[in-house]
Amino acid sequence: MNNFFVTGTDTNVGKTICSFLLVARTKKNYWKPIQCGDIDESDSQFIRKFSDIDQVIIPEHIKLNTPQSPNIAATLEDQIIKVEDLPKNEEISNTIIEGAGGILVPINNHEYVIDIAYRYNAEIILVTRDYLGCINHTLMSINYLKTNKHKLKGIIFSGKFNKKVRDTIKSLSGVSNFLEIPELENLSSNSSDFVTSELGGRIDHFLNN
User: Domain extents for the chain?
Assistant: First the structure.
């Protein structure tokens, strides 16, 4: 089915920006299964706004107004989220799937966001950003993914990184596939051209490695 699941070491590390870059380059579909908060300015709307291409943006499976983890938001809004209730695995193909928060954000009392990747046989792309604690969060996330037999495609370093921090993650992670993307500002409807001209080769190498 050739799906990729974009997750992060924390919230606000750049998952949506990275998803945008991957969608713009690969022409794959985009899907954010669960949106918590920011309903009027959702991640799907962001992708739609800045992409000048015609691939499908699949509607969210569930939208919650409360900006909390999905299990808490769903409880507050009298909803139930279960992986088994998501679209059938054969219905989601050739898609960049974006998770909510990090890999162990709960969606109910026994399932986590990362379990969505299993359902769609998706390779994991882990996004991290340079913040105090990112080394610990990145290495713990990688350890969980490896321990639980997830297929980790690689790590994206999002935005500006202290070289020593980046090199520490590279040397200790046991991962060999990395992509570095710059801090993207002033996005416009022409930003897909930037992806093609400036980042296209690096993204292709990352995905084909």
Answer: 4-208
Closest by alpha carbon to 202, among 185, 183, 177?
Answer: 177
Task: Tell me if 16 sits within 8 A of 161, measured CB to CB.
Answer: no
What pLDDT digit, counting tens, does each position of 18-63 carry? 998 999 889 899 999 999 987 777 888 878 777 655 668 899 999 9
Q: What does 149-170 look like in DSSP terms, one character per residue? A: T--EEEEEEES---HHHHHHHH
pLDDT tens digits, 125-180: 999 999 999 999 999 999 999 999 999 999 999 999 999 999 999 999 999 999 99
Residue 82's beta-bridge partner residues?
A: none
Report the CATH superfamily, name and number, of domain 4-208. P-loop containing nucleotide triphosphate hydrolases (3.40.50.300)
Catalytic positions are: 32
The CA-to-CA distance between both ends of the chain, in Å, stands at 18
For 136-168, b/e burial (b = at least 16 CB within 10 A) is ebbbebbeebeeeebebbbbbbbbebeeebbee
